[in-house]
Amino acid sequence: MSASLDNIRVVLVNTSHPGNIGATARAMKIMDLKRLYLVAPKLFPHEKAEWRAVGAADLLDSAVVVDSLDAAIADCGVVVGASARQRRIPWPLQDARSAAASMVEAATAGNQVAVVFGREDSGLSNEELHQCHFHLTIPTSEQYSALNLAAAVQVVAYEILMATHQQQSRGEQKWDVTLANADDLERLLAHYEQVMIGLDFYDPTTPKQLMTRLRRLFMRSRLDKMEINILRGMLGATEKMLNQRRP
């Protein structure tokens, strides 16, 4: 396995059919991806998953099962959400090929990367998609757009493997600082909310999508750990000045 592929995980959220888990494991192993995370699967472990895995039972054995998406992506510097459509607030969107190149670039730089797939019938919720730095879409026929879960994983896994080969041939330069992970970003957003309330800039009773739009800004920027520290240092200095001015 390539070193960059070691840092990439596939996350399935609330999968209802165990056969889709097995087929996903097979799709991953064919393309040299080994890290499978399952968020609250309906049925797992299950014999139907084993039947569909066909030679990839080791991925099922090593699969990490967690209760929430937060737990699955907490240490990830890049999170990509597979989505068939744009939602109320547009989010940065890439096709599978461009997304794979972005993921491999981040993984090669030493960041943990997650590509997240949602429920078979409804995909990812808006809240789950808001936890992703950008969204990934797979163009399909206008006449028949249904793409099952394992097939979608297969397409993305293929693009990731091809992007890995292309990057190895180019020998691209690494980023100088590791990207911030999901936990870092959540703490930054909570800090921003706290300071904006203290400045009377933000009223949580009438949010008007402010925090969602701020989240989108930071997701699009893909902050590194140093940048997070700088922003939180500025917020801390702001809080200090506020406290000094209060009677």
Could you characterize the architecture of this molecule?
It is a single chain. The protein is 50% helix and 13% strand. It has helices at 3-6, 18-30, 47-53, 57-62, 69-73, 96-108, 126-129, 149-170, 182-198, 210-221, 225-245; strands spanning 8-13, 35-39, 64-66, 78-82, 93-95, 113-117, 134-137. Helix 2 (18-30) packs parallel to helix 8 (149-170). The protein is globular. The mean pLDDT is 92. The chain folds into two domains: 3-170, Alpha/beta knot; 182-245, Orthogonal Bundle (Helicase, Ruva Protein, domain 3). Strand 1 (8-13), helix 2 and strand 2 (35-39) form a beta-alpha-beta unit.
Record the SSE blueprint.
Blueprint: H1 3-6, E1 8-13, H2 18-30, E2 35-39, H3 47-53, H4 57-62, E3 64-66, H5 69-73, E4 78-82, E5 93-95, H6 96-108, E6 113-117, H7 126-129, E7 134-137, H8 149-170, H9 182-198, H10 210-221, H11 225-245
Parallel strand pairs: 1-2, 1-6, 2-3, 4-6, 4-7, 5-7
How much helix is in the residues?
40-55%
DSSP, total strands: 7
Number of domains: 2
Secondary structure tally, helices:
11
CATH topology of the largest domain: Alpha/beta knot
Please give the CATH class of the largest domain.
Answer: Alpha Beta
Strand adjacency order, main sheet: 3-2-1-6-4-7-5
What overall geometry do the principal axes of the alpha carbons give?
globular
Annotation keywords:
single chain, Alpha/beta knot, Helicase, Ruva Protein, domain 3, 11 helices, seven-stranded parallel sheet, alpha/beta, 247 residues, 2 domains
